Amino acid sequence: MEKKAALDALSALSQETRLDLFRLLVTAGPEGLPAGVIAERLGVLPSSLTFHLNHLVRAGLITQRRLSRQLIYAAEYGTMNGLLAYLTENCCGRDALCNPACNPSDAFTTGESDEAPARARQR
Amino acid sequence: MEKKAALDALSALSQETRLDLFRLLVTAGPEGLPAGVIAERLGVLPSSLTFHLNHLVRAGLITQRRLSRQLIYAAEYGTMNGLLAYLTENCCGRDALCNPACNPSDAFTTGESDEAPARARQR
DNA sequence: ACGATATTTCACGTAATCTCGAATTAGGCC
DNA sequence: GGCCTAATTCGAGATTACGTGAAATATCGT
């Protein structure tokens, strides 16, 4: 996962309603839940729910499929995996600083890797 | 880490300048960097930098200490650990769904194997 | 076709976020 | 004290995010 995708995922999860929503879908499993059930469980207006659902879909964190009359949303576990991997690799320092339960034996690319760090100062 | 702290951390990291900033401090190590060096490396105006630094401090992701004339900022690795733990526990489904690098027993294929499921070796 | 249900789209108001430049505080040195 | 540098605070402007309610779209059942 590259930086842009990580930023999209982080931004999508950095809002309480969406974090609750994603956690609900994660616990719901791969079958997912219809929008109506989600709205009822979270207590949000349908139009607000669509707003947040679209945000999560755009970030690739959930998927949408239609089942007859209802739209089913389900967590996309792979994207969450990718975000965790990105954060672990890029934002966790070297050595076993992060995820000590994991004890990753190798592969910490030292230094900044895939992004150009400098942005020209505009004015 | 409880939800409120996780939201603060996610919100702090969901902005490009702040993500770059945090990554820079992570690679800089526990000694940290003075604000001036950070501003120069990222190409950000001083007032904007303070805005983002404060945001990260409020989220507990970095710390501030004064060294004579300059203010040194350093990554707070523990908070990042806590965020990763929170996401792994609350947003990753059951058991071995997330952090496959930690759990090589990948007995779960719900069809979303299109995205990078394991840590993509970059470079 | 008609009605009912499920969900989205649209328009609008408000609040939050981000950037910028000028002014200000803090500390060190002559 | 006066001066310089480091960094922050302040105030204003532009942009974006969020919540709400009314209207529109899609699908199913009769």
Please report the number of helical segments of chain A: 5
Structural class of chain A: mainly alpha
CATH class of the domain at 3-78 in chain A: Mainly Alpha
In percent, how helical is the residue content of chain A? Answer: 40-55%
Q: CATH topology of the domain at 3-78 in chain A, which one? A: Arc Repressor Mutant, subunit A
Chain pair with largest interface: A-B, 58 and 55 residues
The CATH superfamily of the domain at 3-78 in chain A turns out to be Winged helix-like DNA-binding domain superfamily/Winged helix DNA-binding domain
The largest pleated sheet of chain A is described as:
3 strands, antiparallel
Note the overall shape of chain A.
Answer: elongated
Distance between the termini of chain A: 32 Å
Strand order of the largest sheet of chain A: 1-3-2
- What is the H/E string of chain A? HHEHHEEH
The beta-strand count of chain A equals 3
Instruction: Return residue spans of chain A where pLDDT drops below 50 for at least 5 consecutive residues.
Output: 101-123
Q: What does the radius of gyration of chain A come to? A: 18 Å
Oligomer: homodimer
- The percent range for strand residues of chain A is 5-15%
Q: Using the 3D structure, state the CATH architecture of the domain at 3-78 in chain A.
A: Orthogonal Bundle
Mean pLDDT of chain A: 82
